[in-house]
């Protein structure tokens, strides 16, 4: 059956700011407490979606969350009208206000883990929303993420939604950023690779500088919940040294598409063993495009987010890489990409660069901004009948006008205590749910 990999990108939220919240994310730490441009950030993300749609790649969009998250602040003991809550938190706990104002839900690679219907015993697409317990600002996203995905993928004939795993570090789950899929083509059964950074119950090497986020126990639980076909799941450990270098998720150093793995050799403790396991599990030829330290240093790979590029199938089954503009400006990253395109032994024929500087300064590249969902034609039709989240020229124009109408051009962490920001954000989100055909999605929209 025909199937398509649809990239559902997260719209950047109106409170996009550099709060320096993500432990282990070097770019986030370096940009902490500087001013951001939410309008530019949202438009940069939108232009990426537009470019891929123009290339014939199916593209979807997911809405941001309501921020500041006043409901979370109320649960923590702050009382009064919304404006009073925000001002009080800004005075007594400014770090908490930054966490509850984060626009991090834009990085929907962390929204959930998704298994296509070709991979599952019941022939349905399975979703498990990530619980994200390792970072406060992300741990508050799960309930709204679940509501969004259930609204978009609502047809029970095709889609199964699992609750987030218990929210604790034993089952720490960071979503698709630690999940890879190999297949001959998108519509055929594949092998799902779950990459973990630590184990809560087994003695394995651990990073020393930064915490590993994804647990083996969470990955195993998701594989069971998704009813992946027997023998078609594989568990691989992240390299602790890579985590300590700033590769807090697998997708900082590795990306797959069909039968191609594009990665840095430092992503896994023993790259030869990892390649051998993948080759054995797949049973079809796999192209391993591996960069060594002599090609690009681990530090430069993390800085440029070379391996957080999107690896995409074009018409004719040729592939392209969509890389951050920072890679074009890096001699080692650009040279390595040029060498890949010139090598006729792999299916990658084209590289493009995309400007996502606003996202990159907070530690998120092209692959961070998208959740990959493989859909058959009936499954995609079900999504399109239920909402207006699948990208086209008309939706692009409406979203661009919406961003230009509602988003601020400058936002510093000290601006987060402005009650007008909450009013502006909610007015914009109320309009957005109408544009996307999602109905009353947020708590503030309900009586």
Write a short abstract of this structure.
With 447 residues, the chain is of the alpha/beta class. It has helices at residues 26-30, 38-54, 70-75, 82-92, 94-101, 136-139, 142-152, 216-225, 240-244, 271-282, 298-304, 325-328, 331-342, 357-360, 377-386, 393-406, 419-435; strands spanning 3-10, 59-62, 112-115, 125-129, 159-162, 179-182, 191-196, 233-237, 254-257, 260-264, 287-291, 310-313, 319-324, 348-354, 370-376. The strands form five sheets. A three-stranded mixed beta sheet has the order 2-1-15. It has a three-stranded mixed beta sheet with strand order 3-4-5, covered by helices on one side. It has a three-stranded mixed beta sheet with strand order 6-7-8, sandwiched between helices.
Q: Any key phrases for this structure?
A:
447 residues; alpha/beta; L-arginine/glycine Amidinotransferase, Chain A; three-stranded mixed β-sheet; 17 helices
Q: How would the blueprint of this fold be written?
A:
Blueprint: E1 3-10, H1 26-30, H2 38-54, E2 59-62, H3 70-75, H4 82-92, H5 94-101, E3 112-115, E4 125-129, H6 136-139, H7 142-152, E5 159-162, E6 179-182, E7 191-196, H8 216-225, E8 233-237, H9 240-244, E9 254-257, E10 260-264, H10 271-282, E11 287-291, H11 298-304, E12 310-313, E13 319-324, H12 325-328, H13 331-342, E14 348-354, H14 357-360, E15 370-376, H15 377-386, H16 393-406, H17 419-435
Parallel strand pairs: 1-2, 4-5, 7-8, 10-11, 13-14
Antiparallel strand pairs: 1-15, 3-4, 6-7, 9-10, 12-13
